[in-house]
Every structure is written in C-alpha cells, then in structure tokens.
Amino acid sequence: MDTYIGMKRGVPRLLAILRNFNVRGTFFLSMGPDSSGRAVFQLVKNPLFLKKMVRTGAGRLYGWRTALYGTLLPSPMIALSFPNLVKDILSDGHDAEFHAWDHRRWQDELPARPYGWIENWFERGVEAYRGMAGREPSSFGAPAWLIDERALEIAAKYSFHYLSCTRAREPFIHDIPGLLEIPSDLPCFEEIGIDDGVSRILRILEDGQTHILPVHAEAEGGVWDRYFEELLKGALQMNYRILPLSKIREILGQSEWPVRRHRMELLPGRSQPCAV
C-alpha cells in the first residue's frame, strides 16, 4: 500500500476479501510518511502521469486529502499509524514485507539522490518495520518498481531472502546482490482498466504457469474491489493455488534461474519506466 488512505480503508477490505476466499497473500508495507501531494510536481514534468491520473480516476481512488499530503497538509505516517492493522495482516497468515519509507520521494527522486540518501531511506524504513513486526523483513518490493545499482547494493546489506522489485516476465537472479527476483508479471487494473481487465488477466492464467499479480490497496481494496473478487473467483475456478510470495519463493528455489542485470522499460499503462 502506497498511501495513508490505502492503509486505513483499503487494507481492511483486502483482508476481508482474502478471508472470504480463504487465501493468503503478501502485503508490502510503506512504513513512513505519505507524501502523495508532491505528485503535483509530476503533473508538470510528465504528461503521461497526468494521463494516468485522469484514466484511473485518481480522485476516486485516493481522495482529496491524499492529494494535499506533503504540501498543504502534513504527511501522516502510513503503516506506522496502524500497528493493530499490521498485526491483523500477520495473524491472518499473510506475509508482511518492506516496501518503503517514503514511497513518493523514492518514486520521484531516486535517480537524483546521493548514495547516503538511499542508505538513510532503507535504514529508517527497515528500523520502523523491525519495531512494528518484531523481526527483520524477508523481502523488499521497490516503490513503482524503480531500482538502480546503488539501491540493489544497499539492499544486499539486509537479510532479504528474495526481492520483488521488477515487472520482468520470469524470475531471475540479480547480478549485484545475488538474490532471487520474483517479479510481478501480470498487469494490474490501473494499467489495463476494469472494462475487460479481469478477462484479460484470466486469459494469461490459462497457461497454468506461476504468475504474480500486483494489487494496490487503494484500488482493489477500494472502488475496484468487486473486480478483484471476480478475478480471485475465476483463478480459483481454474484450480490455481493462491500463495504468499514466501511460499512461492520455496517453490522457485528448486529451479535454476538466469543471473542478469535489470533494465528499465516503459510498460503499457505506466507513466514512467519500470525495472524488468
């Protein structure tokens, strides 16, 4: 989850849906400040970002307060504001892993920031995670699927068992930290829309292979929740096992995967390049 409102409203709804289907997933937690209002600067710099906001109905997804956090309104903490909700995630048997300290600043500023800023970002986020979960995070999922060699080098200093930082088509081993990458290979609703989004994803699942679906608490746990339910129902009817990434890590660990360096690519429906 990327925002305060996603944590407050979207995560409880996602938990209820997953309980109803008796399945488990992986929640990547944004620990620190919701600086979403700073996205206004992207409206000027990146026309694709404005197009995405209009196409996805960002006002309905995030609400007007979110659009002001970090600018006209102070930034509330995201996961740190909801310790009991994090306990609910864990007690329901889901994975809860590290996603971000400040999601918006990573997404907008990573390439321009120095090495020390990235180190501090990781340390603040992981320390907050430790304090809330009572253990080390097992994984890191990069905000907006944005990484570089510096971020991977710093990530290697932590006890991550795997990464989920890219939109690659299949798992691989990152050449720098030597960690298994479990990519989110399926499109998400905000990229392909909801008109035929469920049917398009189900058609991909017809190959019977392992796939990872990226879900946003603000969307699938919000105004698009019924489409998420429809997708889960369809996948289960196809006899798919829906598992948290920790379980998929155990399965994938039995295979040989290529060792390579990621590259950046602008995917359909995205406003900026993602690692693949």
Compact overview of the structure:
This protein has 276 residues and is mainly alpha-helical. The protein is built from 13 helices and nine strands.
Average pLDDT over all residues:
91
Q: Summarize the helix and strand pattern as letters.
A: HEHHHHEHHEHEEEHHHHHEEE
Query: Outline, from the CA principal axes?
Result: globular
Q: How would you characterize the largest beta sheet?
A: 3 strands, mixed
Question: CATH-wise, what's the superfamily?
Answer: Glycoside hydrolase/deacetylase
Spatial sequence of strands, sheet with the most strands:
6-5-7
Structural class by helix and strand composition: mainly alpha
CATH topology descriptor: TIM Barrel
How many β strands by DSSP?
A: 9
Q: Supply Rg.
A: 18 Å
**What proportion of the residues is helical, as a percent range?**
40-55%
Low-confidence stretches: none
Measured distance between first and last alpha carbons: 21 Å
The tally of domains stands at 1
Share of β-strand residues:
5-15%
- Oligomeric state as shown: single chain
Question: What's the total helix number?
Answer: 13
- Please give the CATH architecture: Alpha-Beta Barrel
In the CATH scheme, the class would be Alpha Beta
From the structure above, extract its key features:
single chain, 276 residues, mainly alpha, TIM Barrel, three-stranded mixed beta sheet, 13 helices, 9 strands
